[in-house]
Design a protein that fits this description.
InterPro entries: ORC2 (IPR007220), RecA-like_ORC2 (IPR056772), WHD_ORC2 (IPR056773). Component of the origin recognition complex (ORC). Belongs to the ORC2 family. With about 425 residues, this protein is an alpha/beta fold. Helix content is about 55%, strand content about 10%. The chain contains 19 helices and 8 strands. A 5-stranded parallel β-sheet has the order 2-3-4-1-5, with helices on both faces. Helix 13 links the parallel strand 3 and strand 4. Helix 3 crosses helix 4, helix 13 runs parallel beside helix 14 and helix 16 crosses helix 19. The protein is globular and about 95 Å long.
């Protein structure tokens, strides 16, 4: 009986009974699941040998286990390969299923700008009482803002909702007797040059042109340092707008705000607005941040955006054109008028390249609008900044000037100018 028991016991089991493997012991100490699986495998091996009565060679071959961790690793690799194949199969198809129900396909009548504005104005504002109470809380900070501005800080407002009415309330209630400048940063043609022109012409009463905005900035800084009685409050709606968020514009505005007698209060709406400023600009601005959530709709800020609900009739371009030119000098408006009239006279010419600079200068000189070509070029730079004109060189190397506005809008603009005159 003893010999039969030894001969029918598997080689692996005999080795474990005679000399336990230290590796297996250590593994069983830390992992109960591994030891239970091995015990189950041993029981299967014993039952197979006792019932099947295999030959010693077959018994030895069946009792030799596979290499450790080979099967789980192979299964894991198979699963990973299947996942990779499924991923590329799912993304290999170029056909993308999307809905074709867009706003453009609505069979609705398009509105004009004024009609849409009137309809939106009639719509009731949700939570009007709560919003009014919230704005009253913000308005109670006006005296605190004035104190902090005079202490050398500048104020930036952020939060959900339009802050235009809040800044306008601050201007009318606190700054009525002070010299102040309002900058609508959301306007599509606003530039830092136009801001500097407003300061030099309207605040400092300077008549003349500058070679570059940096020269103009140096002139402003010099005048404010020489005259200690000068004080200026600058209110900027949407300092982070598309036209003012550039590196050059932010650097000039930061240097202006660093002057002791210039007080800046601005609003920002973009979530990444602080990324405009590095450490040097932040030190110049010296901001105090105020969270002024108003929940007010961005009516005025979005009035210059294209909408699918509006007719594309050129009314937006006309209002922008009129607004920009009203902020310029009479000579500048006369120069632009000559260019517009000449372009309308040649509107039937399909190969019209534009008005050459020399012919344009000659007409402006005859109208006593400029006295040199340098004066005209300085004025053209301002037109380019406002995107009112476009220049290109022809095949003969001559510089041509063109107004990038359709003829109907240009005609309406000249008729409106004649009515105002």
């Amino acid at each position: 009986k003893k010999k039969e028991f030894v001969s029918t016991t598997p080689y692996r089991l005999r080795k474990r009974l005679s000399a336990p493997d230290p590796y297996l012991e250590s593994e069983s100490e830390y992992s109960a699941s591994c030891s239970e699986e091995e015990d189950e495998e041993d029981q299967k091996e014993v039952s197979t040998v006792s019932t099947g009565r295999k030959t010693p060679a077959e018994t030895k071959a069946a009792s030799v286990p596979p290499p450790r961790n080979t099967l789980p690793k192979k299964v894991k690799e198979d699963k990973m390969s299947n996942l990779v194949e499924e991923y590329f199969e799912a993304h290999s198809s170029s056909k993308v299923l999307t809905s074709d129900r867009t706003l453009q396909k609505l069979q609705k009548r398009r509105l004009n700008q004024q009609t849409l504005h009137d309809l939106l104005k009639k719509a009731p504002l949700a939570y009007a009482a709560e919003i009014k109470e919230l704005n009253q809380q913000h308005e109670s900070l006006f005296s605190k803002w004035m104190l902090q501005l005079h202490l050398g800080f500048n104020i930036v407002l952020y939060g959900l909702g339009s802050k235009r009415d809040l800044l306008e309330k601050f201007r009318t209630s606190v700054l009525e007797d002070s010299v102040h400048l309002v900058v609508n940063g959301y306007f599509p043609s606003i530039t830092v040059r136009s801001i500097l022109n407003s300061i030099t012409e309207e605040v400092l009463d300077h008549i003349g042109t500058f070679r570059s905005p940096l020269d103009q900035l140096e002139f402003i800084i010099k005048r404010f340092k020489e005259d200690s009685s000068l004080e200026l409050y600058v209110l900027i709606h949407n300092l982070d707008s598309q036209m003012l968020r550039g590196e050059r514009s932010q650097q000039i505005l930061a240097q202006l705000s660093s002057l002791p007698s210039i007080y800046l209060i601005a609003s920002v709406d973009h979530i990444n607005a602080p990324l405009m400023w590095d450490q040097a600009k932040l030190s110049l601005y010296n901001w105090l941040w105020y969270e002024t959530t108003t929940f007010s709709p961005y009516v005025e800020e979005t009035s210059y955006e294209n909408s699918l609900l509006l007719q594309q009739s050129g009314s937006l371009a006309l209002s922008s054109l009129t607004h920009v030119l009203r902020s310029l000098t009479p000579n500048a408006r006369g120069i632009f008028r000559i260019l517009a009239q000449y372009q309308l006279e040649n509107k039937d010419n399909p190969s019209y390249p534009g008005l050459s600079f020399q012919d344009f200068y000659q007409q402006c000189r005859e109208a006593f609008l400029v006295n040199s070509d340098l004066t005209l070029r300085a004025q053209l730079i301002e037109f380019k900044d406002h995107k009112l004109i476009r220049t290109k060189r022809g095949a003969d190397g001559v510089e041509y000037l063109l107004i990038p506005v359709d003829d109907n809008t240009l005609t309406d603009f000249l008729e409106k100018e004649d009515e105002d005159v």
